[in-house]
Amino acid sequence: MPDALLEADALDVFYGDFQALFGVSLTIAPGEVVAVIGANGAGKSTLLKTFAGQLHPRAGTLRFAGEAVGTLPAFAMVRRGVALVPEGRRLFPSLSVEENLLIGAQAGRPGPWSLQRVFDLFPILAERRRQPSMSLSGGQQQMVAIARALMSNPQLLLCDEISLGLAPIVVKEIYDRLPAITGEGLSLVIVEQDIVQALSAARRVYCLQEGRVALEGDAKSLTREAVSAAYFGV
User: Fewer CB near the terminus (10 Å): N or C of the chain?
Assistant: First the structure.
């Protein structure tokens, strides 16, 4: 395994003619928790979609486990061990909780995560396994989205705005589960607007501002002033 599980070098990413990322470079080590913070429109979700193969860089290189992957589609990235928990959860509304989870296992990757294991992580999902996924609360739906991604047994888990729209007590419950997830050795990228949550959960932090990396550093050593300056571009 290379020193960097994922390495992005000078990525330019576009939506049609609109450029969303400008020369973004970052690395994620095996087993590392990295937070990506920034205001709305900073490019955070675009970055995760690029990592997951939903978008492809027009310039720059993206490598995963030592392999160039910048042109691979999303299904190929899942098979290689990259799973995305999308903003808004994106559950299949016509399917039950259990059926949504089983879809996550379709890649057939070996690993520690199974139905029983995700039910141990989120016991409420075992109780609601037969219910339609959209009948759950927002927090429970977020648990389904995370568990579905884990069912693919990823090496890299990408979580996009996992606290968005959720009550603080639910956010705490989800974040309290993260050590059990990373304890299996996978790497985790958390995209957050909540700076406090991001800094508390991550070892390293990248701050995006208008599609560029404005700040990168150790989460425990970055000052509030430096983070605020990078976040707001002042």
Answer: C
